[in-house]
Write a structure and sequence with these properties.
The chain is 88% helix and 0% strand. The longest helix is centred in the middle third of the chain and has 25 residues. The model has no long low-confidence stretch (mean pLDDT 96).
Length: 100
């Protein structure tokens, strides 16, 4: 069975976490999705690129989540989430996925 690229896992965590929080009106459920995808992506990052890269990409994942909030006030919620997810996916691909 082929592994889902870590870039897809990370981006899906950001988009899915927001979607779940919005549609269920339960922010905690969105947080569970965000955290689960982040943990799965971090495990893949560590396996593919090492602990240092996994740490840096994990920081980028959390920063993208946090940064999407003020960005949403300027461009709207969904564009901010998709922008943050795209940035994390690109970083993940560049650091971990393209090697493998």
């Amino acid at each position: 069975m082929a592994k889902v690229p870590s870039s897809v896992v990370a981006a899906s965590g950001l988009v899915g976490g927001y979607g779940v929080a919005r549609w269920t009106r339960k922010r905690q459920l969105g947080g569970v999705v965000l955290a689960a995808a982040g943990a799965a992506a971090a495990r893949q990052w560590r396996e593919r690129a090492g602990s240092g890269a996994a740490g840096a990409l994990s920081v980028a994942y959390v920063a993208a989540f946090a940064g999407s909030h003020p960005l949403a006030k300027k461009v709207g919620a969904w564009p901010a989430v998709f922008g943050a997810a795209g940035a994390v996916a690109l970083a993940s691909w560049a650091v971990a996925d393209r090697r493998g």
